Amino acid sequence: MLNNYSTEDKILLAVDCIIFGFDKEDLKILLIKRDFEPEKGKWSLMGGFLRKQENLDQAADRILVTLTGIHNVYMEQLHSYSKIDRDPAERTISVAYYALINIEDHNEELIEQYSAKWFKVSESPKLIFDHDIMVKNAINRLRYKTSKEPIGFELLPPKFTMRQLQKLYESILDEKIDKRNFINKINAMDILIKLDEKDMNSSRKGSFLHMFDEQKYKRKKAEGFSFKL
Amino acid sequence: MLNNYSTEDKILLAVDCIIFGFDKEDLKILLIKRDFEPEKGKWSLMGGFLRKQENLDQAADRILVTLTGIHNVYMEQLHSYSKIDRDPAERTISVAYYALINIEDHNEELIEQYSAKWFKVSESPKLIFDHDIMVKNAINRLRYKTSKEPIGFELLPPKFTMRQLQKLYESILDEKIDKRNFINKINAMDILIKLDEKDMNSSRKGSFLHMFDEQKYKRKKAEGFSFKL
DNA sequence: CCAAAAGTGTTACGCCTACACCCATGA
DNA sequence: TCATGGGTGTAGGCGTAACACTTTTGG
Predict the structure, then answer these.
(1) A12-148: which CATH topology?
(2) What are the helix (H) ranges across chain B?
(3) How many whole angstroms separate alpha carbon A105 and alpha carbon A178?
(4) pLDDT band at B36, cuts 50/70/90?
């Protein structure tokens, strides 16, 4: 049972990535159109198999870089999926990861190479295998995590307006948020740097750009502060 | 890369169980003394390998039943651990599960057969591999989960006193809780059945026994209520 | 009658929510 | 000058935390 390593069955181990991006108004995910069997031509998460010389985090990172070209991305392990017939071709367990990227950073060529496309979370197509469940679980985790840790900024460019930040949270939580309450809360936490610079694209008046002050956040966190939205 | 299933390396897939119990005053975990290599004689979580004809949940359940003899236990997948040299003998990925059992239900014979022992969470020995990290992560998850869902009852006998319930939460959260506030909160949720029966073991006066009303909880939950402690 | 645990309500504070008007600018 | 989005403050309600005394009964 426990005292015998080698007689057990071997099973394939895959990693699939739910890649989130935020495009002005909408939370999106990056999907690929499979050009190989099984389920060729269907939409799917980007995935790959774990290699013997890497751990799961590294595999997830490798897969993400392969599709987006972006390094040093926020990623977190989500869950492992193991239904026996989840992959009709082989017995495969998949460990799902989700990643938060600044959508502007992705590499167009790679996206094309993999026939990948950004979909609004609310309008994404049916996916192969159990990938729909993975996405659903990832969204729930994202909602929880973004309300407890300042990771939402990973989805925005380094400089962003308060309105962009608010829209981001509205799209993640799928609910309207009061403008003043939102800003009051954010300001009360005192973890942003307000720049003198303005973003003039969204209005005539222009709106001030802000940056997440990671150093300050870390200091405050060490002193017992916790992010909360 | 993605379009080739069979050339990837095969890797062993294990499941390890963090088994929680509550013994009057203390949160405990059930550990086994390994009577096989590697790390023979050291303390460890109960584990086993995934079989081809079962999914991860089933494997975790099988492993739990093997050690405790108890079926229909609350279990939840925790995380997958994949450090390359986590197991010095073989490249093994482990998916950790945690289980909540009524400590009175365990089977003494099986416990002896596996040289298993209950340890206070606060006094548990050093474990093999990365099992210490698994336990730490499981406790964090348990803290989170028990404060958001009524799963603490899984650690108690069907009939319990308010004081037992409070001590349970105190031991999970590792902090004192005000008696009146605790009872007020629990009563406000209105998900317990107060019995006429008293438990006479803990005091001369005796204290009323309660049961978790799962039906009522489910009804309330369907109407938007959520458990919160 | 004494020790030991059970049982029971109220007040104060802080946090969260709801809410409306003026400002700056380009067209 | 007007249309559009940006920016700002407060009052009330709700939930949470702090807090102490009486009851029961076996020894």
Answers:
(1) Nucleoside Triphosphate Pyrophosphohydrolase (3.90.79)
(2) 56-68, 108-113, 131-148, 162-173, 179-189, 214-222
(3) 30
(4) confident
* Amino acid A64: pLDDT: 98
Per-position DSSP letters for B19-60, written without gaps between them: EEEEETTEEEEEEEE--SSSSTTSEE-EEEEPPTTS-HHHHH
User: Is pLDDT at A167 greater than 70 in this prediction?
Assistant: yes
Contacts of A54 in chain B (CB under 8 A): 84
- Phi, psi at A158, each rounded to 5°: -55, -35
Nearest CB to A13; choose among B13, B48, B84: B13
CB-based contact A170:A176 (threshold 8 Å): yes
> pLDDT band at A10, cuts 50/70/90?
low
CATH of domain A156-222: 1.10.10.10
- Collect all residues of chain A within an 8 Å Cβ-Cβ radius of residue B36: 2-3
CB pairs under 8 A between A and B: 86
Q: Which two tokens stand for residue B93?
A: 């990925």
Ordered DSSP codes for A142-170:
HHHHHHHSTTGGGGS-SSEEHHHHHHHHH
